[in-house]
Structure formats: structure tokens, C-alpha cells
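forwarding from the other thread:

> can someone predict this with uridine-5'-diphosphate-xylopyranose?

sure thing
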Amino acid sequence: MGESRTIGVFGAGWVGLVTGGCFAELGHRVIVRDVVPERVAALEAGLMPFHEPELQEVLARNRERIRYTLDAHELADADVLFVCVQTPPTYSGDADLSFVWTALDDLPRTERRQLLVMKSTVPVGTGEKVRAALEARGLTHVGYVSNPEFLAEGNAVRDFLHPDRIVVGAFDERDGTAIEELYANIDAPVVRTDIASAEMIKLAANAFLSTRISFINEIANVCELVGADVEQVAKGVGLDHRLGPHFFRAGVGWGGSCFGKDVSALKQLAGNSGYHFQLLAAVIEVNELQKRRVIAKLEKHLGRLRGKTIAVLGLAFKPNTDDLRDAPSLVIGSRLLAEGALVRTWDPVADARDRLRGATQCSTLLEAVTGADAAVVVTEWDDLRGLASEEVRAAMARPLIIDGRNLLDPGETRRAGFAYEGIGRPSSQFETLPETAEPERKVSS
Ligand code: UDX
């Protein structure tokens, strides 16, 4: 058993609450500080500001050990202060660190040695800058550690408590060890590094995950041209233990709050340091084009989209979240509207009315597909697995499904009377065979 410590958390956002809740679950005392009074009041009342599976239970179960506050002075009791504030991109593509600097301004005045730990994703070099800022303020007794999060939405509590690895970068070995000890009850390899390397591990991990997806999406696009099936290809390739099967699903592209931001941040960081990161430029461009390929697939069947009714099914950037940040649905929906299509959207939880003005958001799946010339699966919600039903076919003006996540079985869907287009899957038995001439037969006499 590790020793129980008092942990302060700057920011009651998604990362902050998962971090605070899970450290409390591990037996530590936690003080979460946020600047928004309504948020603190809601948390005190046991209400969640967003949906994340298991988090509410974790916070409720450990209520005795967690305190929420607006007052940064209350963090004076903490041994360790986790910085879990937002770092959104600026106009230059760099990360906006103003919330980090505000956290620094709010550091409690105390003589005891505290450790400031960066959980938020930041550009490489931030640790050096924070160290310099601490020195300039005479806060030499505050230590600094980088301990990036690797949490995926919808799975964050499990990712925290059962991580693939824990990365701890420190200027001072003892500080790194103190942070490592907080995780003593977790069974995972700990990677001890210098600060810059810890910062880089986070950016490189997200960049490589995005690269894998853009790679399999390009393979899918070639599969369509040569008559191969990307689902079979990905399975066959992914069984190579050097490559692995994860993050290898072709689709309409990656989205979410992290990938776009972090891949761009790494590309800019390289650029600012004088290096042109060509591969990442391609990874980003492939992803942008991938979202737009849906339009061409629709046009193949429907011709010009002006006046056609298209059902966009699934809006969230992935299932089991209502998060619309960088969601492919927004690009697909906006492109359809720009082509003059009538767009009807449906999602079990996400609400895109503010972002897709001109589209009709429907409350049921059946309502969205009624009168539609095509239905596009954008997010692989479980509710969409039964899309190829008799009821849906009867409701649509034309039975055309564009499956942007390869969620449905092509054979079953066609047998149910739909025209079907997936991503990287043969679009019909004959259409995509390459046009190679039949070999001439020599008839021996
Ligand atoms: C991601 C990382 O997984 C996490 O480690 C990091 O800390 C933050 O970014 P998240 O954004 O929550 O987490 O979503 P994730 O489940 O990783 O999916 C990202 C996007 O990639 C989604 O739009 C998803 O649909 C897409 N994706 C994922 C694919 O298109 N194909 C795949 O094979 C996997």
C-alpha cells in the first residue's frame, strides 16, 4: 500500500475530475479547485457537468475524501498540485497556456515544499518555462513534474486505474519518485524521463495513433479502387505482433478534442524549431479529405445533391459521448448543406443545432430517415446496428446507406434491399474489379 497524501487539483474539467476522483479511489485526500462557482456548487451537490461512465460513482463513493472549492488558498494543505486546466490551440496553432499561468498566479502561499504536476497536454518546453516562471516569482521551493494523461473519453476512469504505462518526467529525481508513489496501488510500468521527453511522449502517442488511422483510411481508399476489402486487410495486417490490431479501423476520419489539437501542436512545435514534419502534414490532410469522401459516394448514386434529402446518423465524434469537438459529422453536414442538400440529423445524445444551422435535428432515427434519399452512418452508435430494417427501407425515399464506419454487414444490408457503400469495401460484386483484359486463350487443335 502506498502512503496516503493530500492532492490538490487545478481545474474541475474532465481531466481534473477524473484525476481527482481516481486519486481519491486510490486512498488519497483530494481538493479540487475551480474558478466557476456554479460548477463547484453543482459538484458539491453531486451533479456532473458532463457525462463520463463510472466517474459519478467514483466521486460519490469517495465523497468523504474529496473537497471542491473556489478558494486556491485551500490548496495550501496539499503535498502535490495537479494542473488539469485547458490548453486550447491559439491562432498560430500553438497551445494557449494562459490557464496554466493563471494556475501559477493562484499557487497558495505556503512555506512547505509542494510539487506542481502538469497533467494537461502542453508543448515540449513548457516545463522549462514554468520552472523559469517559478524561479522568477521566488517560488524555488515548488518542484515541477510532468505526468501526462492518456485518457480516452468514455473509458477515462478505467484508463486512469488500469493504464498501459505511467509517465513521470522530473527535474529532480526525488520529485519524480514522490509522484510515482502516488500510483503505488496501480499495477503498470512507470516510465521515468526528463521533462521534455515526458511532454513529447504524450504528443508523439497521439500523433502516432492519428497516423495509424490516416494510414488505414488511405489503404481503404486504395482498396476501393482495386477491389480489396479493408476490413479483411486490417485484420490480416493487424495480426502481425509488430503492428497490432488496435486503432486500425477505417472510417470517415478521426475527431475529438485531442487528436486534431495535439497533432497540429506537434507539427507547429517542429516547425517553430525549424523542422518540417511532412508526415504529420499528410496525416492531417488525409483526415480532412476522408470526411469529404462521403460527398462523392453520395454523388455516385444520387448525382447532384441539390434538393436531395440526406440523413446524417450520429453526430458525436465517437459513440458513448455527446462531445462534438472536431466531429467529422460537422464537416460532412456543412458540406452537404453547402451542396444544397436538405440535411436531417440524429444522435442519441449529441445536439448539433447550434453548429449545423440549416439542418433539421430529429429526435428519432426513424424520423431522420423518413423521406431521405440516403442515410449516412457517421458515428458507430449501437442503435444504428439495426439500421437496415424493413421499417427504415419503407420510410426512405431511396434505400441507400453510406456506412462511414463499416458498422453494417454489406451482404445482409444488400439482402435487406438497400444499396450499400462502406469505406474501403467493394461497392458491388462487379463495379470495382480492375479493368484487366482477359488473357487470350490459345485453343490447341
Ligand atoms: C484520444 C486518445 O485515445 C487518448 O489517449 C488521448 O489522451 C486523447 O485522445 P479520445 O479523443 O477520447 O482519446 O478518443 P479515441 O477513442 O482515441 O478516438 C479518437 C477518434 O479516432 C474518434 O473520432 C474515433 O472515431 C477515431 N478512430 C479511432 C478511428 O477512426 N479509427 C480507429 O481505429 C480508432
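Residues 149-153, 206, 209, 213, 247-249, 251, 254-256, 258-259, 317-318 surround uridine-5'-diphosphate-xylopyranose (CB under 6 Å). thats all i got for now
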